[in-house]
Design a protein that fits this description.
By secondary structure, this protein is of the alpha+beta class. The protein folds into 2 domains: about 400 residues, FAD/NAD(P)-binding domain; about 30 residues, no CATH class. The protein has 14 helices and 19 strands. Strands 4, 5, 6, 12, 13, 14, 15, 16 and 17 form a 9-stranded mixed beta sheet that branches. Strands 1, 2, 8, 9, 10, 11, 18 and 19 form an 8-stranded mixed beta sheet that branches. A hairpin with a 2-residue loop joins strand 9 and strand 10. The longest helix is centred in the N-terminal third of the chain and has 25 residues. It is globular and about 65 Å long. The two termini are about 40 Å apart. About 50% of the residues are buried. The chain binds flavin-adenine dinucleotide. The site of flavin-adenine dinucleotide has 43 residues, from helix 2, strand 12 and strand 17.
Length: about 450
């Protein structure tokens, strides 16, 4: 982010953030340097982890090395929904990790959202943050079932933080077509994600963390005292290192066993007039998701646009690939679904579109663990839900790196082993087929055949 808006920015958020507060240039790593902890990747995970470490261990020498610029990856391009959700939904989380662990994760996430809000206020980070809540809606009978499952799971955990809404209740919040019912969670933030990433970088630097941009780690090498991270112009000798590269960890064969890259896309309208807003009645300006298996999400932006994303999420066999950041066919489909949901906005133009890489796992849960015990750790795999969870994962990663015994290390994000995928071409055939089946089931309002139904049941 050089401060000059233009095509070099993958997303509208990054352009906006750089226009509002041009970030300082951060020089690449040159020569050899010794630190206690090296963090690879200046997205939310890497930045929150370096801040957590610096706060907990004053004097610890910490450096972040970033291949491009701060917030270049998914952190600067997402929808900006910071939710309690870890995995796909509260129902899905209970099913995967059991009620006790699901409750622990959910409560930890509730506290994490409060912490993000407090941190931004205390550090003067203008992340255009609001706390309007999250409305999750159903657009079909199969989605009605999922809404009820979420409500049942939440009640079962004694959380009581989802309010059921009927169709008029949902439409009173946002007048979108086709909505049948939903639930409202008050504890959910909306942010400008690129501004948050830049603000976190500045906060890390205020704590003495060094951030080197345009410093791709090309090789890791064991060292008697830890690990050496090689970049094109330098080498970072560190006691410990954290790989916070999410989807980009595709480059690491051992992580690629359980991590795959999905391309996610967003379109965004021009700013709406007051008359347009009156037509949708979106007074509370909250975030909205539907309950497809591959959901749509939409939200107002701080300057009065509607951001609309989700649905298509093709797998990239080669990991993050900038050539796939723009896909006119997918942008066209997103515009179509936006127009079906808001026919009353037919005179509003869609003016922005972008995409980015999502690091996904089979369980849809993020994982924190050691790649090389005591030397190199990883924290990744949010499966499209990392804005809020990355701030929790960072505290887990900080505890793991410093071998500090804490209840966070007993969360399933650490204790559950990632599910490996089949090696070779079989993996891609299975992932591609699964995507096609899920997409068709969502579009049709239900899966056909036992395989399709089984797959949808697994992920709903
Ligand atoms: C279009 C889209 C919409 C999304 N919407 C939402 C949403 O609304 N809510 C939500 O919760 N989540 C959302 N997500 C997911 C969320 O953005 C991610 O889970 C989160 O940003 C992950 O942060 P991260 O720091 O782990 O990874 P990233 O932000 O991807 O950061 C990784 C960084 O590592 C750097 N890097 C890679 N390789 C190297 C290397 N070799 N050396 C040095 N640096 C390297 C990259 O340049 C990058 O900056 C969305 C994602 C996308 C793409």
């Amino acid at each position: 982010m050089s401060g000059v808006p233009g095509p070099a920015w993958p997303s509208w958020w990054q352009e906006r953030a750089a226009r509002r507060a041009p970030p300082p240039p951060r020089p690449p790593l040159e020569g050899s340097r010794d630190v206690d902890v090296a963090v690879v990747g200046a997205g939310f995970t890497g930045l929150w982890t370096s801040i957590t470490l610096a706060d907990r261990h004053p004097g610890l020498r910490i450096a972040v090395v970033e291949r491009e610029r701060v917030g270049f990856g998914a952190s600067g391009r997402n929808g900006g929904f910071a939710m309690t959700m870890v995995g796909r939904s509260i129902h899905d989380l209970v099913r995967k990790v059991g009620p006790r662990d699901a409750r622990a994760v959910h409560l930890a996430m509730g506290g994490t959202l409060n912490r993000i809000e407090r941190f931004c206020a205390a550090e003067g980070i203008d992340a255009e943050l609001s706390r309007p809540g999250l409305l999750t809606v159903s657009n079909g009978p199969e989605q009605d079932v999922r809404i009820e499952q979420d409500l049942a799971a939440s009640r079962r955990l004694g959380l009581d933080d989802l309010t059921p809404l009927d169709a008029p209740g949902c439409r009173a919040l946002v007048a979108a077509a086709g909505v049948r019912r939903g639930h409202l969670e008050e504890n959910a933030l909306l942010v400008n994600p690129a501004a948050l990433a830049l603000g976190l970088a500045a906060a890390a630097e205020r704590r003495g963390v060094a951030i080197h941009e345009r410093s791709a780690v090309t090789r890791l090498e064991g060292d008697p005292d830890g690990v050496v991270l090689h970049t094109p112009e330098g080498a970072l000798r560190a006691g410990r290192a954290l790989l916070a590269t999410n989807a980009y960890a595709h480059a690491v064969p051992r992580l690629r066993r359980f991590l795959f890259t999905v391309c996610a896309y967003i379109v965004c309208t021009e700013p709406l007039s007051d008359a347009h807003w009156a037509r949708v009645g979106w007074d509370r300006r909250l975030g909205v998701e539907d309950r497809r298996v591959m959901p749509h999400f939409h939200r107002p932006t701080p300057d009065g646009r509607i951001l609309w994303g989700g649905r298509d999420a093709p797998v990239s066999r080669v990991g993050p690939d900038p050539r796939r950041d723009r896909d006119p066919r997918i942008f066209g489909r997103l515009e179509q679904t936006f127009r079906s949901a808001f026919p009353q906005l037919d005179d509003v133009r869609v003016t922005e579109a972008w995409g980015g890489p999502v690091g996904a796992t089979v369980s849809c849960l993020p994982h924190v663990g050691w790649l090389h015990p005591g030397r190199v750790a990883y924290a990744l795999g949010y499966s499209g839900h990392g804005v809020g969870p990355s701030a929790l994962v960072a505290r887990v990663a900080a505890d793991l790196l410093m071998e500090r015994d804490s209840p966070l290390l007993r969360l399933p994000l650490v204790t559950r082993r990632p599910i490996p995928m089949p090696p070779g071409p079989l993996r891609w055939s299975l992932l591609d087929a699964a995507q096609r089946v899920l997409q068709a089931a969502d579009d049709r309002g239900g899966a056909r055949g036992p395989v399709g139904r089984g797959l949808v049941r697994l992920l709903q």
